[in-house]
Design goal:
- The structure holds two protein chains of two kinds.
- By secondary structure, chain A is mainly alpha-helical.
- Chain A contains ten helices and two strands.
- Chain B has two domains: about 220 residues, P-loop containing nucleotide triphosphate hydrolases (Rossmann fold, 3-Layer(aba) Sandwich), CATH 3.40.50; about 60 residues, Alpha-Beta Plaits (2-Layer Sandwich).
- In chain B, the strands form three sheets. Chain B has a six-stranded mixed beta sheet, with helices on both faces.
- The chains are: A mainly alpha, B alpha/beta.
- At the A-B interface, helix 1 and helix 4 of A face helix 2 and helix 3 of B.
- The structure holds adenosine-5'-triphosphate and magnesium ion.
- Adenosine-5'-triphosphate binds next to strand 2 and helix 1 of chain B.
- The site of adenosine-5'-triphosphate (ATP) has 13 residues of chain B, from strand 2 and helix 1.
Chain lengths: ~260, ~300
């Protein structure tokens, strides 16, 4: 692995290009989560009443927020990276400079994580305007930190997918077979404890489950010892996915 | 002169396919060295190993005293690359393309600004500095690629078919710029399929074919050695070859049939032309020998791929 500070300049390149379509991405990354908040939160929330002593939205918001981080960072590192790699040949011009393939890929994972952070933060702001507040300022800061980790995790996982992708259609498999099931079986909308045992066990294999658990605890300020394990999963899986994502992409880029 | 790039038994395989098949060459500092070859000859594969973006399969390759390998940032830092494909960043403007690139070479901001202004002028794109890439013509894109390749003031400039797809004006502008750079002392490595380009720019060339080097030398010398000074082309049916060669063969250095044409190579074409007139052959062209003749003679006059 051959990393250097040029990772920051690869990130910067994305920033320069981002300034042109930042507003449209704001809209795009807000619409789906808002949809969840309205249909599930306000619509269903009315029937659900209290959830662990608080309105349902306090349960839902951290879940949706984490989901939107996952979505943004995943899509950025799939579609965004694929376009840059295949259609625009951007990686070819990057690695002809002192930027190494590792720098280029790491810079794009960092970028994916940043996009996730932006989406998640927007969600948080919307929630705050709806009157659903994290318990303290410290929670806000911890959530931001968590979003970065979650962004790196899902950005890296997506990067692994991209390293194998022959074309755009390939990403549908990942979206349909991995992302969508996670959305429904990771405790984003309902607590996992009402699920049958095998489903609970399955949920433990979904990275989103752990991310949502930590986000929800931070948001509502009810920490428990089990969270350490959740966080370790995010951290270790994130590190491993980052390593393999970079390695696989390097293999694809350097021929 | 000092040797700046030196390759020995250099090999490149993609899977089982051999793209570069054990070639050796030396490039001197400050010269313009050309790789000529038909499509698929292995030119791009070779230069990509030189500028350290493609690993060698075997052999040795020394660039400015260092072994070339994909993680060699020092070589990349002092090399400029005009790639065969247009790899501009289409999300950015002309100027932003250069600014972003300057960061990758760790050029300080103010110095970068100065160089970018100078380079945009050099490639005559000052007026397009704020254009998006897709608003540029192919010629402008190629010129921008040159500007980008020069940002780090490279000692070694690699130009991989820099004028493909350009009109004559744009091509001549690019040739002038490349010559200027050479005059400033840069080592220039050019790949091309255009013989005129090689004759215009290169001090020495190698002719590559199917991953091997067939011939090496200065363009004029190669022409003299392989073809002679003049070429006579006679359009004729293949069944006349025997009689034509019997009449004209002794007056030429060699002959070759390709498609509907019989080629005679000579150092002094006058006796042969006299004979041609005597025989009253129509559809005959007599012209000076060119690098193209050498190229076609060595790589075959028929389609390779
Ligand atoms: N990444 C790759 N994977 C597999 N084969 C490759 C790859 N790159 C090049 N080749 C093959 O290697 C051979 C040499 O290619 P190369 O691009 O070096 O030729 P070239 O002389 O630059 O040709 P052209 O004039 O068309 O650019 C070709 O047959 C090509 O198909
Ligand atoms: Mg080529």
């Amino acid at each position: 692995m051959n990393f250097s500070r040029r990772i920051a300049w690869v990130f910067w390149r994305n920033m320069v290009s981002y300034k042109r379509f930042v507003l449209t991405t704001f809209l795009a990354s807000l619409i789906q989560p808002l949809f969840y908040l309205v249909t599930f939160g306000i619509g269903m929330g009315a029937y659900l009443g209290q959830f662990g002593g608080k309105p349902y939205l306090y349960f839902l918001v951290p879940g949706v927020l984490t989901t939107s981080v996952m979505m943004s960072s995943s899509f950025e590192c799939m579609y965004g990276t694929f376009v840059k790699m295949i259609h625009e040949k951007l990686y070819d011009s990057l690695i002809a400079t002192p930027v190494s393939a590792e720098d280029a890929v790491a810079g794009d994972i960092a970028w994916g994580a940043f996009r996730g952070l932006v989406s998640g933060s927007l969600m948080m702001i919307v929630a705050i305007f709806m009157g659903i507040l994290p318990v303290s300022l410290l929670s806000v800061l911890l959530l931001v930190l968590l979003m970065v980790f979650v962004g790196v995790l899902f950005g890296s996982l997506a990067m692994i997918v991209t390293s194998f992708a022959p074309n755009f259609d390939f990403f549908n498999y990942y979206s349909e077979l991995v992302i969508t099931p996670m959305l429904f079986f990771s405790g984003v909308f309902f607590p996992l404890d009402r699920f049958p045992g095998w489903m609970k066990a399955l949920a433990q294999f979904m990275p989103l489950t752990h991310a949502v658990a930590v986000a929800r605890a931070i948001f509502n300020g009810d920490y428990s010892r089990g969270l350490l394990l959740n966080f370790l999963v995010i951290f270790i899986l994130g590190g491993a996915a980052f390593y393999f994502g970079v390695r696989r992409m390097k293999k694809r880029l350097i021929k | 002169m000092k040797t700046i790039i030196s390759a020995r038994r250099l090999c490149k395989k993609y899977g089982a396919f051999v793209a570069v098949d054990g070639i050796s060459f030396d490039i001197e500092e400050g010269e313009c060295f050309g790789f000529l070859g038909p499509n698929g000859a292995g030119k791009t594969s070779t230069v990509r190993m030189i500028h350290c973006v493609s690993p060698l399969t075997s052999g040795t390759l020394i660039v400015d005293g260092q072994a070339a390998h994909v993680d060699n940032r020092a070589v990349k830092q002092q090399t400029g690359v005009i790639p065969q494909e247009i790899t501009l960043d289409s999300d950015l403007t002309v100027r932003e393309n250069l600014q972003v690139h300057a960061h990758f070479f760790a050029i300080p901001r103010r110095e970068a600004r100065r160089r970018i202004d100078g380079l945009l002028q050099f490639v005559e794109l000052e007026k397009r500095r704020d254009s998006k890439i897709d608003q540029l013509s192919t010629g402008m894109k190629r010129r921008l690629l040159i500007a980008r390749a020069l940002l780090n003031q490279p000692r070694i400039l690699i130009a991989d078919e820099p004028t493909t797809g350009l009109d004559p004006q744009a091509r001549h502008l690019i040739w002038q710029r490349l010559r200027q750079l050479k005059d400033q002392g840069a080592t220039l490595i050019l790949t091309t399929q255009y013989m005129e380009e090689a004759q215009q720019l290169c001090d020495r060339i190698v002719i590559m074919h199917q991953g091997r080097i067939l011939k090496e030398g200065a363009p004029a010398r190669l022409i003299a050695a392989e073809i002679g000074r003049e070429v006579t082309e006679i359009r004729s049916a293949a069944d006349q070859d025997e009689s034509l060669v019997a009449e004209l063969g002794p007056l030429a250095r060699g002959h070759e049939r390709a498609g509907d044409t019989l080629y005679f190579y000579c150092d002094d074409g006058r006796p042969l032309m006299k004979k041609v007139l005597e025989l009253d052959l129509p559809a005959t062209v007599h012209r000076p020998a060119s690098l193209e003749d050498v190229f076609l003679k060595l790589t075959g006059r028929n389609l390779v791929e």
